[in-house]
Amino acid sequence: MNNHLNRRTFLTQMSAAALATGLSSIPFISSARSLGESKKLGIALVGLGYYSVDELMPALQKTQNVKLTGLVTGTPEKAKKYGEKYNIPKTNIYNYQNFDEIAKNPAIDVIYIVLPNSMHKEFVLRAAKAGKQVICEKPMALNAAECREMIAACQKAGVSLSIGYRLHYEPYTQHIMKMAKDKPFGDISMVHASAGWRMERPNDHWKAKSKFGGGAMMDMGPYPLQAARYATGLEPVAVTAQMFNTAPEVFEGVDETTTFQLEFPGNIVANCTTTLAANVNFLNINAERGEYGLRPFSGYGGIHGFLPDGKSFDFPEMNQQAAQMDEMCLSIIEKRPCKTPGEEGLRDMIIIDAIRESVQKGGKRIVLK
Ligand code: NAD
Question: What angle do CA 57, 140, 131 make, to 5 degrees?
Answer without folding.
Answer: 70
